[in-house]
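Q: Could you write out the predicted structure for this multi-component system? I'm mainly interested in how the pieces pack against one another.
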Amino acid sequence: MKRPTIHDVAAAAGVSRGTVSRLLNGERYVSPAARVAIERAISETGYVVNRAARSLVTQRTGSIVMVLSEPHEKLFEDPNYSTLIRVAIRRLAERDISLVMMLAGDEGDRERVVRYVRGGYADGVMLVSTHAGDPLVNALGSTTPAVSCGAVIGRETAIPYAATDERLGARQMAEYLVGQGRKRIGMITGPMDTPGGIQRLEGFADVLGRKASTKLIAHGDWTQASGERAMAALLERAPDLDAVFVASDLMAAGALAALRAAGRTVPGDVAVGGFDDSSVATSTHPPLTTIRQPLAEVANETVNLLLALLDGAKQVEPVILPTELVIRESA
Amino acid sequence: MKRPTIHDVAAAAGVSRGTVSRLLNGERYVSPAARVAIERAISETGYVVNRAARSLVTQRTGSIVMVLSEPHEKLFEDPNYSTLIRVAIRRLAERDISLVMMLAGDEGDRERVVRYVRGGYADGVMLVSTHAGDPLVNALGSTTPAVSCGAVIGRETAIPYAATDERLGARQMAEYLVGQGRKRIGMITGPMDTPGGIQRLEGFADVLGRKASTKLIAHGDWTQASGERAMAALLERAPDLDAVFVASDLMAAGALAALRAAGRTVPGDVAVGGFDDSSVATSTHPPLTTIRQPLAEVANETVNLLLALLDGAKQVEPVILPTELVIRESA
DNA sequence: TTCCAGTCTGTGCACGTTCACAGTCTTCTG
DNA sequence: CAGAAGACTGTGAACGTGCACAGACTGGAA
């Protein structure tokens, strides 16, 4: 049983291919009579346009590719991805654009992505949490519309992005801790080659000034275990600290364990502030005071940027969205 | 600057289209001389085959679609999705198949998916956590290769799937709790229209027999809040219980909070067992004894089933993978 | 020598669209 | 009433590939 083509529809409706095509593509100049005849023919035959044939002539694929960088095996960002993917699918579906997923873990992956895009298999690219100096950014070139979800640091080629105001979020938390009367405030950062790692520390330093001594700063890699280690190190270096800002909720969970092991109460002895407001934030004891990122809106804006580019916008401005302090019990 | 076509490559290599095509598709009968000439021409011109043109003639798209059912806004399963997506992308990329994502939340979504598949825009379908009686399963028909990640319950059309042995996992936990000398063991289940909801209860009942009275069973919806509510209800109905098996880690985190609020110690007064071994399991206090699901392997096997179908297998058998008990401190 | 099998190559056609163009019919304007 | 403008329709030519087929060349067997 062959799939019906535009010919079949035209024949069934008693018109020509051209008219059917015009209706399909929402052009003007289709008479009401033709319109109803074609619409009936379409539903009778169960016709659906052949995308390959269309792509062949229009040079457009009707799909965009989302590129996930996965430097580490499993990151705290996982839940974030899910939100992003969902929002992107939904928004793109409105325009009948489909979302293709690709990975950019190693060199082979990146090459595949470049081939894919250069080959014209997608109309646009959406980068996700791309690392500093990722060669992919330059390899893609400026030919194809590309945006990033989350800032791309170390860019030679500027690429439009939507992101949360990481620095603002860190300031909010730091100010809150100071406002609570905490005097010796430490920080556990993320990896210093990610926007979240760098900018959350910057925001912290904005508020603490020279009180943010290196003695009070430890680095983690987003994992819970690293948060635990960093907290232990911090306690050793500065036993008198009375608050700590941890750059992710998952690491904060680790920090809580280290504090408990050291016999410190939270928030009594030490106040703990997290970041992300992920599902972990409510499952710890005590629940984490943290910074909520407007993930869905970031995803939304990222899609908006890409759509604008697809619609021919020459240049688009980055979008940075504000974070929000969520007060629970840990601080 | 036009993209090079197979004609250009043929001309540059001094052969005909046909020969280039044969090399590209790995057919026999390409002389060594032609081979090197073509390979050089390809890399010189930067040629990459036009997928649309190829699809048009082969009737294959080289892509499969993953359909995410999202009945609720945000589920505990989010992190699971990430693993699944990553594994699927990677495995499919090996065969140069790309992964398209779609949502099947409401009727409109499902219609879109059916149109997509029926329109031949994808060579196969991968269903994810499809709910009971999802009309999508029947709507897809038996024409296109389709598999499911996670069992599809209430199926009229049987659809091959890979899944974890939910029932086994529940038995493992129940047996462990019994083995620890617990006498009054309650359970908090998931929604009873999901495989995880039904089968984890079945496994629990397998071990407890008639001790699994309805008085000791409460239902949740996978959310932390529902776990907390269910635990509170359970404590009211059966104040003497000394253990509870919670069908997800996130709900278990809620249960922990309810127990703490009621002044019960864990595991002293009440032992708590979770399910999933998600990131939440290690962030609670105490860390959860739980059941680990081999998510990556499930994803792997799901892809295997689909690939087998794509390769023309008439029928494939479901794959069910064993779970594993992870002992921490909550039980 | 003749024939055949095997290896390799080139060519025409079909795949199902969109687009530009030419054409027809209607209605309005001067 | 002539002419123009507008509304609508049909047609041929691409788009870039894979496939079937026909043909050319080789080496070996009869």
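A: Regarding packing and overall arrangement: The mean pLDDT of chain A is 90.
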